[in-house]
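Quick note —
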Amino acid sequence: MPISRRDFYKLALGSAVGLAVLKNSSTALAQGISPKKPLPYGAGQPGETDGGLPPQGAVSSVEDFEYQIKYQRAFEAVLWNMPAVAIYSFRRAAFENLGLKDNDIIAYSEPATPHLEAITANSTTPYITAFTDLQKGPVVLELPPAGADGSLYGQIVDAWQFTIADVGPAGLDGGKGGNSC
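Predicted structure written out below.
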């Protein structure tokens, strides 16, 4: 079932907020320290942890500590999810708008512009992109050798944009080309 971009982002954000709400305990609250009361000990006094604590008499500058923790966790969940959202959006657009399928190669004719709507793309890199679904089996990537006509520099990344391998003269093949599984 296709999902619209707007619905995908609403789902991702809703998931992040849901995760944040489920994790509503903080270190301070777990230690029994109330953000509204002065702390029982401070820097340099016996009982201080190695990480250090605010000075004696310090109070929290945050009115609603629990809300602030939930907000920060939701924000971190959204940031954590951005690489996967970007890859998914690239893949969905290629399949729906360009009619591509797994293992087809997209070679952009010029560097990215804001019209590409890619969250992490830069405007100086000519992108070559391909998507594959490893649930359907292994894939062999054939890399061309570097030569006088040009070189392919790049990365093989997973859905989180974590580098699995570098390719090209600076990569595993050293610019000699070959096959990667």
